[in-house]
Amino acid sequence: MDIQWYPGHMTKTIRQMQEDIKLVDMVIEITDARVPMAGRNPDIDRLAGNKARLLILNKADLADEAVNSRWVSFFSRRGYECVLTDARAKGSMKAVTQAIENASRKKQERDKQRGMKPRPVRAMVAGIPNVGKSTFINSFSGKATAKTGNKPGVTRGRQWIRLSGKVELLDTPGLLWPKFEDQEVGEKLALVGTINDQILNEEELAIMLIRRLKTLCPGTLEARYGVSETLEEPAFMEEVGRKRGCLQKGGEIDYARTAAIMLDEFRSGRLGRISLETPEDFT
Ligand code: G4P
User: Is 102 in the pocket of ligand 1 (CB under 6 A)?
Assistant: First the structure.
């Protein structure tokens, strides 16, 4: 495995994840439903090896509902057990428990045939930053019947969250690094706020947001800001700034503040439920 290229702390994180994966039967990968492909790190396939897999499309509440359903079909056709969630909503967790059972059925049956006593499925959560891993684990543990103590061979501090006697979830998520060597992927991840500030400044990013939304969901920006979408992106932003009173001393438009407002309104769903990727982009 070529990990030389990654910074030191990433190497350590990967090593930790490799250790954790040895302890589990299943890897629950979380991605962002608005950018399900850009939000995944393809190296997870190698890291997870032949463990059972579950793919969670989280923040589904911020993504287009019709596109969400098409993504579930897309991943199901590729053999993934796949669930849409709003990790902040504990109600989402019932579907997750069911999906974990589905994804682990093969192993359970194999164990049974070998005459092994059934035991809970051990799972861990993994994903790139900000996809909702901690929120997911919190919602899950909110329903947990018990938190089990440290087990032999488990790093001190690691705990298992036991759910309904059938699932045990490692309390610490595996952190993957975002893959943004590709400009297109980097742009999408920056727009949803995963790699904020790392590759682009907010003003450039807001221009990109305007460009994308004009094509993806024509009329959305115009309806929200009362500014014509026929304007070029910089002129559009200027008008939004004027309308929102983002002015500097001397009456100049404060582009930084305008950009921050537009990005925040997109990320928080105030512009509506918008998916930046659709399965059709990948077929
Ligand atoms: P991480 O562990 O993967 O890094 O992500 P974390 O759970 O910290 O979640 C990152 C942000 O995304 C949090 O917002 C969290 O509330 C939000 N979030 C997580 N899951 C969902 C979801 O399904 N839908 C929506 N709409 N938001 C979700 P934050 O701005 O950091 O904090 P706060 O605003 O919640 O206080």
Answer: no
Cα distance from N-terminal residue to C-terminal residue, the chain = 29
> Which atom of ligand 1 has the smallest separation from the CA of 136?
7
Identify which of 135, 176, 196 to mutate to test ligand 1's pocket (most ligand atoms within 8 A of the CB).
135
Q: What is the pLDDT of residues 232-243, one digit of tens each?
A: 999 999 999 999
> Rounded distance, CA 133 to CA 125, Å?
7
Residue positions counted in the chain: 283
pTM beyond 0.85: the answer is yes
Alpha helices in 63-201 (DSSP H): 65-77, 93-113, 133-142, 183-192
The CA radius of gyration of the chain, in Å to the nearest whole number, is 21
Please report which confidence band the pLDDT of residue 1 belongs to, taking 50, 70 and 90 as the band edges.
very low
Q: What values do phi and psi take at 169, rounded to 5?
A: -110, 130
DSSP for 12-76, please give it. HHHHHHHHHHHH-SEEEEEEETTSTTTT--TTHHHHHTTSEEEEEEE-GGGS-HHHHHHHHHHHH
H or E element, residue 282: none
Buried b (16+ CB within 10 A) or exposed e, 54-79: bbbbbbbbbbbeebbeebbebbeeee
Least confident of 81-90, 101-110, 259-268: 101-110
Of 205, 267, 191, residue with least CA distance to 237:
205
- 133 Cβ closer than 6 Å to some ligand 1 atom: yes
| CA-proximal residue: ligand 1, atom 12 (nearest) | 132
The CA distances from residue 241 to 62, 161, 221, 255, 281, in Å, are: 25, 48, 13, 7, 33
Nearest C-alpha to atom 25 of ligand 1 is from which residue? 59
Residue to mutate, 130, 195, 267, 275, ligand 1, most ligand atoms under 8 Å from C-beta: 130
